[in-house]
Amino acid sequence: MASQPNNIEGQNKNSNSRVIARLMFVVVGMFGFGFALVPLYDVFCDVTGINGKTGDQVTLAEDLQVDTSRVVEVEFIASLNDSMPWEFKPMVHSVKVHPGESTRIAYVAVNKTDRAIVGHAVPSVAPGRAAGYFQKTECFCFTEQKLEPGEEKEMPVIFVVDPELPDDVSQLALSYTFFIKPSGASKDTASLADNSNQEI
Amino acid sequence: MSAVIEEHHEHHDHKPSGIGRWLFSTNHKDIGTMYLWFSFIMFFVGGAMALVIRAELFQPGLQLVEPEFFNQMTTLHGLIMVFGVIMPGFVGLANWMVPMMIGAPDMALPRMNNWSFWLLPGAFGMLLASLVMSLMGMGSAPNFGWTFYAPLSTTYGPASTDYFIFSVHLMGISSIMGAINIIATIMNMRAPGMTYMKMPIFVWTWFITAYLLIAVMPVLAGVVTMMLMDRNFGTSFFNAAGGGDPVLFQHVFWFFGHPEVYIMILPAFGVVSQIVPTFARKKIFGYSSMVYATASIAFLSFIVWAHHMFTTGMPVAGELFFMYATMLIAIPTGVKVFNWVSTMWRGSMTFETPMLFAIAFIFLFTIGGFTGLMMCIAPADFQYHDTYFIVAHFHYVLATGAAFSIMAAVYFWIPKWTGNMYDEKLGKLHFWVTAISANVLFFPMHFVGLAGMPRRIPDYSLQFAEFNAMATVGAFVFGLSQLIFLYNVIKTIRGGVKATDRVWDGADGLEWTLPSPAPFHSFTTPPTLK
Does the distance separating the beta carbons of B237 and A182 come in below 8 Å? Predict the structure, then answer.
């Protein structure tokens, strides 16, 4: 601060300026905090493993000990976003696997419209606390899927249930929801979608 | 300004005149008056919307309005009551009373104070303009509930949503500037000898409320900016197809939203803490615990937001955390209720209108708090959520809570503001009709909510009919009785029995050392504390 003013008003102005500056800093900081919550929630879900996010990244196939004493049933669910006109279903409804054992299943998607559509599938595993133990080594959800008009495609998933899966979990559900891929966006970025004003 | 000029000023007590007096005011009393009139007018506007809602809900079936319009009524009713009535009402009380209570000549930043006020008619003009357009058949006003969840408000919102967003930005800027002003005033302009722990409780509650505002209004600004970006700039904050998440909206909104409801109640606690000791003729019981309890409530309010989201599919660990944290808030709140009752214990009590409203507040707010405790039990909330049980809860804490405290404050302080006593008979009449009709209006909502009536619906199953009819009758009596209040306020401004400086027998504090009406400029030289 400049030299201390020698009257109450001047001193008040100084202390007011200090208070205002500090409070404005908090205001700007909290505004940024609101936006920071977007990546912060991702970090929180990663660290705690909740929210059912299995990640859309490939897990490397390791040699895991297969636990033949235990059987886990994995069910497969297929959903479509409201604006996605494909047909989409799993080829099997469920499989029984041993933890540690690599398994391949497939979904089927059909584009019955007359235009090519690029889709992107978002996976989710229930219960949420089991999501961290469900490793996908290959999955159609890692990349965009383009279907020409009338095209039908088989979409494989290769997964391993980690033997560290908590003992009280004996059933898992793997669910995919197919969305029309927003044009102009790359798979990894969460921004620049062009479908924000769709008609109902 | 030198001391000579200040004294000169005091003798003249010169006020500006004409429309400029109000448009360009830098006077905390005039600005307080404008906030209070704005709040009162908005109370009738939002109240009229409530009556449209209640009229439609009087009987099962759709009789009066289209569902699309009904949704606009529920949305605007909520927005107006929260942002246009309760918040400006308390800011008006703060503007009038805080400088006088701490012996300050005005707020720290009088010109910013002016702008804080005048942003509000602009913001609400914009919001209500969308309703006018809607009534003229040109599109829809906001219709997604006052909590404006995405994607209903983003992907599926009407064109007026962008004006709604701008409106919220303006209200937020107004609140943030007001809060900065309050903090600077309280920190820097207390009279010599007024330490923090000697400030009136109303000043303390506003001090803490101002910090809450600074912390969370920017988060609201953030969430509406994200909405704006999703709607207009191609982002996907809340759009799963682009990698975003609608639940993110709820998290960011309620991170603001929960502290917001404490912003709306802490000043009410302050008002009650001024009124009860006055009419019990006894100092507030447990002054420091009142301060600490208020601070604890404010702090805890930051860590409970997801209790509004128990049904979104949160993991059990999350539900438990937010349940326990929410239960904790009951403790400091209970301390405050206990202290008000203890203040009355063995006091010399009289029951003028402000005291009637204050006592009704204590009782009815506590009922609202109890239903809040019920809802905080996460598994039980699965039944209560999005039903009329919730509607009953928040109307008890906001209508028979916050709004009653504003009415109490007006009766309490209007003799100081105008120099005239209000009409006590009319005041008591207003109180009794209001208090009884409010309970006829809101209590049945508990029952229909528990029985399964959802909220935000224009029509309902037949088994809810009788209680809805009851509530509607209560609503119309409640709404009409506010005209008694309006009449009394105008009558008091125009004349009445002259008020003394002290006004109330048990009144204590710097504000009661000033003449009634308080001079246009007061405490231009700081008072000495006794």
Answer: no
In sequence order, the 6+-apart residues with CB closer than 8 A to the CB of A171 are A72, A73, A74, A75
Which of A7, A12, A17, A30 to mutate to test binding with chain B, by most B CBs within 10 Å of its CB?
A30
The CA-atom distances, in angstroms, between A65 and each of A160, B195, B284 are: 11, 70, 70
- Rounded distance, CA B264 to CA B363, Å? 18
Judged by a CB distance cut-off of 8 A, whether residue A17 touches chain B is no
Look at residue A25 and tell me if it is in a domain.
yes
A chain contacts of residue B243, beta-carbon cutoff 8 Å: 185, 189-191, 193
When the candidates are 1.20.210.10, 3.30.300.350, 3.40.50.720, 3.30.450.20, the CATH number that belongs to B29-513 is: 1.20.210.10
**Could you tell me which chain A residue has the CA closest to the CA of B317?**
A50
A9-20 pLDDT, tens digit per residue, is 666 678 899 999
Which of these, B81, B66, B75, lies nearest to B131 by C-alpha position? B75
Cβ contacts of B210 within 8 Å, gap of 6 or more:
B178, B179, B180, B182, B183, B186
Q: What ipTM, to 2 d.p.?
A: 0.87
Calculate how close chain A gets to B458, using CA atoms only, in Å: 22
**pLDDT score at A180:** 87
Q: Is B231 on the interface with A (CB under 8 A)?
A: yes
State yes or no: is B175 an active-site residue.
yes
Q: Do B519 and B418 form a contact (C-beta atoms < 8 A)?
A: no
Let me know if B28 is a catalytic residue.
Answer: no
Measuring CA to CA, which residue among B173, B176, B174, B261 is closest to residue B213? Answer: B176
**CA–CA gap between residue A153 and residue A164 (Å, rounded):** 34
The partner residues of A73 in beta bridges, in order of sequence, read: A96, A171
Same domain, A133 and A90: yes
Reported pTM: 0.89
Closest CA to B111 of B23, B241, B243: B23
What are the tens digits of pLDDT across the range A45-66? 777 766 666 655 556 656 677 8
